[in-house]
Amino acid sequence: MKVLVVGASGTIGKLIIKELAPRHEIIEVGKSKGRHQVDITSEDSVRQLFQKVGKIDAIVSAAGSVHFGPLNEMTADQFKIGLHDKLLGQVNLALIGQRYLNDGGSITLTSGSLSHDPVKYGANASTVNAAIDGFIRSAAIEMERGIRINSVSPTVLKESWGVYGPYFSGTDPAPGDKVALAFRKSVEGHQTGQTYRIW
Ligand SMILES: NC(=O)c1ccc[n+]([C@@H]2O[C@H](COP(=O)([O-])OP(=O)(O)OC[C@H]3O[C@@H](n4cnc5c(N)ncnc54)[C@H](OP(=O)(O)O)[C@@H]3O)[C@@H](O)[C@H]2O)c1
């Protein structure tokens, strides 16, 4: 399969590529790195990406930022970071990308465990992750031509523990290869409307 991976240079993106590359043609996409560049927050940029790349079999997204910070100082503009970037950015990839998928293709987005297992400073991330899982659940019932859509919801990865660990006291971090397998299941399997929780 021809698999477009957005966020290819990231911690999760690299693990996904390691898992999928032995069996598939990977098109690496990033904001500044990779074979192609895209800013998922811009519909124009996403459209240009798909026009350049043409027909594909799978879209995988491991990109998107959220605002992390104390609730009593949080502003609407800070809250919008997650809405515009991680949520709408990935929704842009699905809404525009669906037209560039071959019949039977798939879309896999990334959410995260904070939807159900909140931590201090994570209100924006919890909201956005829950919204992504809600989006794929609903979009799955309308996708045409056998196209499937799922999300992968990891807890903090072992590989990212050095960065996020202090906020996740008492959490058992997820091994990156297990997270990558969930993306493989979404791309190579047959289920749709599913959230694969790695926590
Ligand atoms: N790491 C974890 O423990 C963990 C756990 C649960 C959920 N998640 C979620 O998984 C996703 C990826 O996390 P990560 O830790 O792998 O991130 P990361 O290492 O920071 O990598 C982010 C990747 O996304 C790309 N990117 C950033 N903004 C973009 C934009 N506007 N348009 C297109 N590409 C963009 C970057 O491209 P360039 O490098 O080319 O700039 C990079 O390839 C995030 O949504 C995060 O919330 C992560």
Structural class: alpha/beta
Determine the N-to-C terminus distance.
29 Å
Number of helices: 6
| Strand order in the sheet with the most strands | 3-2-1-4-5-6-7
Q: What's the Cα radius of gyration?
A: 16 Å
Provide mean pLDDT, rounded: 98
- The proportion of residues in beta strands is 15-25%
Contiguous uncertain segments of 5+ residues: none
Bound molecules: NADP nicotinamide-adenine-dinucleotide phosphate
Q: What is the count of β-strands?
A: 7
Walk me through this protein's architecture.
There is one protein chain. 39% of the residues lie in helices and 20% in strands. The chain has 199 residues and is α/β, with parallel strands linked by helices. A seven-stranded parallel beta sheet has the order 3-2-1-4-5-6-7, sandwiched between helices. Strand 4, helix 3 and strand 5 form a beta-alpha-beta unit. The longest helix is centred in the middle third of the chain and has 22 residues. It binds NADP nicotinamide-adenine-dinucleotide phosphate. NADP nicotinamide-adenine-dinucleotide phosphate binds next to helix 1 and helix 3.
